[in-house]
């Protein structure tokens, strides 16, 4: 079987999950740290309504930048996120089928489910599940949500988060991210290398601490103001902006250990407000 | 009688949950089957992270019969004077579902009562199991549990199916929406065999197979025989059918400090490091699950991932060593120690003072004292390095590495590493005096600070490790035989917090000592009788080394006649003093000694007390006990038989009590209060 390119992997996953009743939606147009932040996960996990969705989410982790020097770390990468709510009994079998659909031979290689109790302190979200290892390479985070925004969930969604680069590494047998084939003749590095270097420099050296500190305050205020008016989506978009501002300040070394819990608590309580506002507006 | 099998299929449990779950399952069955009067043969549990099996041989197919006697009202209430049943009597029979003729009268110490003997019908085992099994499964507790469907069932991970076989009969049980497993007509025994064929089901067998595989490979390659025990246990529950694979990585990464390499390998990939003559080599062992894999490609993936990660570690390492460690120390001001206790920089300042104080008490020479102070200053600086940020478990180890890189003395570097030891009950202890002093100071500062701000362990919940700290403290002091007055150090530690604590110093000191005493009791070896340990601790635990010595010495002689004599002396003197508690007992006045026998007792005291005190001082506890028992047992025996201690005459009485107190304290003050032992009989 031909080795899939990055864009073919996305295509295959879209097809696979679409065939299993998932809506295929587009990424959120705001900087976020993970696919979980997308309202298609954060809001839709709340309440009792069934929901199945899949999407790619570009994710930013300013602290993880390595100036394109590290073969495994990026400050900007791609997650493929699936939410199946409520979860189904054979969800793990379906997941393994998705790996087979990508041409991965599960007899010749070993899939391991390694305990990982996932938690997002800023979203007040947590769940139990695993990191999925393929021959010791972590390719997926598999979580049964128990809480979102500090709210105990009545209906348990299963969240499957593929690390797209990792899966491509395995499929293409290339152990440097930048060598991955995005499409025939075009590498991941061609598209992202300069972006990585410049953003690493920006996050660690150039981002204006003064501006981001002020922005954090503005975003916080705006999120609260909008939540007061019952506008859950706009309020939430400002929570995400605040969260990203916090991450940049962190990468910039501008947040002391004492302040960190305070920032996180602020974002979490904003996220909780948005969740409450969202629930209040449900029919 | 038929064999029984329970199989719980579950989505992979965390590796650390599996063994306790199996143990709990076994004890739950033993307990509940006994309660239900179902006899059975051997009971065994086997399992992996995804399969828990309980196999019970020769299970009785019916409960044992049970006759139960139920006591009712007294006869005089249940029957009237004409021997007819009263409404109360009728009510009792009715409530028990019995007829009036079933009522029996029995005389008891409290008088005559009405009884009913109820025969409880034996139920078929199958019926009992349908209730018992879900209860046994629910009794398994985990650190974290979850729900996964609308039934509300909770477990550590979703349960996929439950199979119950009583011989060939597939018993259906109801637990949430969990489906029954399928056995396709197999008997319990045949099903177990089938499971055992597909994997190494027995956790202990699997573990020793893995261990042997690794040892064999190490031998073949001419490598050191060493296995990380924690990783072995973890690996044991990551695989069902172990297969060994040897891989390698680029030599250049051997530059990364050993502990970093080991942490990266064991934590991120669960693979075993290998060494030759104590030095790591660029090879590793991975335990894979199942046969028929593409080993060539797997090796490549494992090796490449490892190298990519080590590249990151090397990056952290090179970043961290750009500055000497001492330059990082002021950054500890940004790191909180505890919200009520200030930051980490303040912590190391206290630690400097406290370890100097301890050094002085131990008469440590000025050069070492200086090293201890330096080590205290650097002890926490690695917490703000990138490497420890990535691998928190490397705290201390990186402190050592980086301080050496910054040109510090080796003894300082080792003390930094050692001050975190022991991390658990079975961990190594500090070897150097510098490390030990720092470790003691750090622990006392932790215990005093945490207890002092009102934090206390509750049940098994001890998030700040107060018990662990107390335990470590005792282990270090005992291991290094450090003669310290622990109370004095606690007072100093309290003082160094400069009023930051919520609890008053005197109260806090008592509290801290109590915690240490409690831990001391659990750490000291068990004695026979068990109370001997408490008896020793009652006589003081300020000097921990002496407490251990006394426990050790006395438990060796606790069956000797002279020991029992000494114990009897303590007991009798203590008993007589108990009654006199209210009276103020003074010194013995020789002029008031009247009876010959009491003069004889006092003579024994005057003749022997000096020598006994001397033996105690020299810590010859066995000899001291012998001398004490021999000196006083016979003479006191006669004395108690013939002389009334509690005489009418107050002066006489006081004097005799004073004598008893002197004899009692001679031993109990510094060795052990043997009066606490149960039933002391001297034959």
Describe the structure.
The complex is a heterodimer of chains A (283) and B (683). Helix content of chain A is 42%, strand content 23%. With 283 residues, chain A is an alpha+beta fold. Chain A folds into two domains: 198 residues, BirA Bifunctional Protein, domain 2 (2-Layer Sandwich), CATH 3.30.930.10; 72 residues, Methane Monooxygenase Hydroxylase, Chain G, domain 1 (Up-down Bundle), CATH 1.20.58. Chain A is globular, with a radius of gyration of 19 Å. The model of chain A has no long low-confidence stretch (mean pLDDT 95). With 683 residues, chain B is an alpha+beta fold. The longest helix of chain B has 26 residues. The radius of gyration of chain B is 34 Å and the shape is flat. The chains are: A alpha+beta (283), B alpha+beta (683). At the A-B interface, strand 4, strand 6 and strand 7 of A face strand 7, strand 13 and helix 9 of B.
Produce the secondary structure layout.
The complex is a heterodimer of chains A (about 280) and B (about 675).
Chain A: H1 6-19, E1 23-24, H2 39-42, E2 51-60, E3 76-85, H3 91-101, E4 111-115, E5 119-120, E6 125-134, E7 137-148, E8 151-152, E9 158-163, H4 164-172, E10 181-183, E11 186-187, H5 188-206, H6 209-228, H7 232-251, H8 260-280
Parallel strand pairs in A: 1-2
Antiparallel strand pairs in A: 2-3, 3-9, 4-6, 5-6, 6-7, 7-8, 7-9, 10-11
Helix pairs in contact in A: 6-7, 6-8, 7-8
Chain B: E1 2-10, H1 15-35, E2 43-47, E3 51-59, E4 66-74, H2 75-78, H3 87-95, E5 103-108, E6 111-120, H4 125-138, E7 146-147, E8 154-155, E9 159-166, E10 169-170, H5 188-198, H6 203-220, H7 229-236, E11 242-248, H8 258-268, E12 272-276, E13 279-289, H9 295-320, E14 336-338, E15 342-343, H10 344-361, H11 366-378, H12 386-390, H13 397-405, H14 410-418, H15 433-452, H16 466-479, H17 486-496, H18 505-523, H19 531-538, H20 544-557, H21 561-578, H22 596-617, H23 621-642, H24 650-668
Antiparallel strand pairs in B: 1-3, 1-9, 2-3, 4-6, 5-6, 7-8, 9-10, 11-13, 12-13, 14-15
Helix pairs in contact in B: 1-4, 8-9, 10-11, 10-15, 10-17, 11-14, 11-15, 13-14, 14-15, 15-16, 15-17, 15-18, 16-18, 17-18, 19-20, 21-23, 21-24, 22-23, 22-24
């Amino acid at each position: 079987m031909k080795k899939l390119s990055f864009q073919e992997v996305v295509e295959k996953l879209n097809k696979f999950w679409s065939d299993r009743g998932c809506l295929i939606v587009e990424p959120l147009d705001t900087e976020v740290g993970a696919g979980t932040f997308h309202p298609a996960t954060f809001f839709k996990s709340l309440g009792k309504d069934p929901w199945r969705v899949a999407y790619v989410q570009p994710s930013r982790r300013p602290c993880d930048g390595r100036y394109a020097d590290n073969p495994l770390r990026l400050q900007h990468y791609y997650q493929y996120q699936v939410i199946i709510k409520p979860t189904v009994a054979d969800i793990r079998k379906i997941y393994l089928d998705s790996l087979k659909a990508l041409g991965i031979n599960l007899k010749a290689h070993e899939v391991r489910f390694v305990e990982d109790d996932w938690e997002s302190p800023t979203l007040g979200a947590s769940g139990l599940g695993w990191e999925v290892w393929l021959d010791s390479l972590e390719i997926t985070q598999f979580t049964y949500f128990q809480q979102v925004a500090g709210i105990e969930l009545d209906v348990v969604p299963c969240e499957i988060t593929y690390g797209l680069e990792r899966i491509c590494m395995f499929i293409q047998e290339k152990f440097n991210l930048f060598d991955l084939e995005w499409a025939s003749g075009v590498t991941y590095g061609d598209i992202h290398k300069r972006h990585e270097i410049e953003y690493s420099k920006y996050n660690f050296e150039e981002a204006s601490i003064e501006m981001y500190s002020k922005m954090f305050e503005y975003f916080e205020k705006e999120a609260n103001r909008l939540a007061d008016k019952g506008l859950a989506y706009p309020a939430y978009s400002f929570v995400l902006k605040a969260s990203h501002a916090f991450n940049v300040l962190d990468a910039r070394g501008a947040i002391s250990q004492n302040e960190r819990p305070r920032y996180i608590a602020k974002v979490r309580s904003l996220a909780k407000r948005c969740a409450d506002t969202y629930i209040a507006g449900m029919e | 009688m038929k064999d029984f099998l329970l199989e719980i299929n579950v989505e992979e449990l965390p590796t650390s949950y599996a063994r306790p779950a199996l143990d709990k399952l076994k004890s739950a069955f033993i307990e509940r089957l006994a309660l239900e009067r179902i006899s059975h043969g051997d009971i065994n549990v086997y399992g992996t992270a995804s399969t828990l099996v309980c196999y019970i041989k020769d299970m009785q197919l019916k409960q044992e019969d049970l006759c139960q006697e139920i006591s009712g009202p007294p006869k005089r209430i249940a029957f009237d004077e004409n021997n007819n049943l009263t409404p109360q009597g009728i009510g009792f029979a009715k409530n028990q579902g019995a007829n009036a003729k079933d009522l029996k009268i029995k005389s008891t110490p409290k008088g005559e009562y009405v009884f009913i003997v109820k025969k409880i019908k034996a139920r078929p085992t199958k019926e009992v199991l349908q209730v018992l099994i879900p209860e046994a499964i629910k009794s398994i507790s985990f650190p974290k549990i979850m729900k996964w469907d609308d039934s509300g069932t909770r477990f550590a991970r979703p349960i996929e199916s439950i199979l119950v076989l009583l011989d060939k009969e597939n018993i259906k049980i109801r637990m949430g929406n969990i489906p029954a497993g399928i056995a396709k007509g197999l008997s319990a025994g045949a099903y177990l065999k089938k499971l055992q064929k597909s994997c190494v089901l027995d956790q202990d067998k699997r573990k020793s197979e893995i261990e042997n595989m690794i040892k064999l490979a190490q031998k073949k390659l001419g490598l050191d025989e060493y296995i990380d025990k924690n990783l072995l246990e973890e690996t044991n529950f990551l695989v069902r059918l172990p297969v060994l694979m040897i891989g390698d990585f680029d030599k250049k990464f051997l530059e990364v400090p050993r502990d970093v390499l080991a942490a990266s390998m064991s934590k991120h990939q669960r693979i075993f490091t290998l060494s030759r003559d104590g030095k790591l080599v660029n090879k590793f062992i991975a335990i894979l699950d199942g046969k028929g894999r593409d080993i060539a490609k797997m090796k490549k993936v494992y090796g490449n991932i490892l190298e990519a990660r080590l590249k990151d570690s090397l990056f952290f390492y090179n970043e961290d060593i750009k500055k000497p460690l001492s330059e990082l120390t002021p950054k500890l001001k940004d790191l909180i120690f505890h919200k009520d206790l200030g930051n980490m920089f303040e912590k190391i300042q206290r630690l400097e003072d406290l370890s100097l104080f301890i050094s002085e008490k131990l008469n440590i020479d000025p050069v070492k004292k200086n090293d201890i102070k330096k080590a205290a200053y650097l002890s926490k600086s690695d917490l703000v390095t990138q490497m420890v940020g990535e691998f928190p478990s490397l705290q201390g180890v990186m402190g050592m590495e980086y301080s050496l890189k910054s040109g510090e003395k080796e003894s300082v570097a080792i003390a930094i590493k050692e001050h975190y030891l022991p991390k658990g009950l079975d961990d190594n202890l500090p070897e150097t005096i510098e490390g030990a002093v720092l470790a003691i100071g750090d622990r006392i500062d932790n215990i005093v600070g945490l207890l002092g701000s009102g934090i206390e362990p509750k049940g098994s919940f001890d998030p700040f490790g107060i018990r662990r700290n107390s335990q470590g403290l005792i282990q270090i002091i005992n291991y290094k035989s450090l003669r310290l007055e622990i109370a004095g150090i606690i007072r100093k530690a309290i003082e160094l917090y400069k009023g930051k604590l919520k609890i008053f110093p005197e109260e806090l000191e008592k509290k801290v000592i109590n915690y240490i005493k409690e831990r001391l009791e659990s750490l000291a070896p068990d004695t026979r009788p068990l109370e001997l340990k408490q008896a020793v601790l009652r006589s003081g635990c300020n000097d921990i080394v002496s407490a251990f010595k006394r426990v050790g010495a006395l438990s060796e002689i606790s069956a000797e006649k002279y020991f029992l004599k000494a114990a009897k002396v303590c007991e009798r003197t203590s008993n007589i003093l108990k009654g006199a508690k209210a009276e103020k007992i003074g010194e013995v006045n020789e002029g008031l000694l009247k009876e010959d026998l009491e003069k004889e007792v006092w003579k024994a005291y005057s003749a022997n007390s000096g020598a006994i005190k001397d033996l105690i001082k020299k810590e010859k506890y066995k000899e001291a006990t012998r001398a004490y028992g021999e000196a006083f047992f016979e003479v006191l025996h006669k004395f108690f038989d013939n002389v009334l201690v509690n005489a009418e005459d107050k002066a006489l009485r006081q004097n005799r009590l004073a004598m008893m107190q002197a004899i009692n304290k001679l031993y109990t003050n510094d060795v052990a209060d043997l009066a606490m032992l149960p039933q002391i009989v001297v034959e």
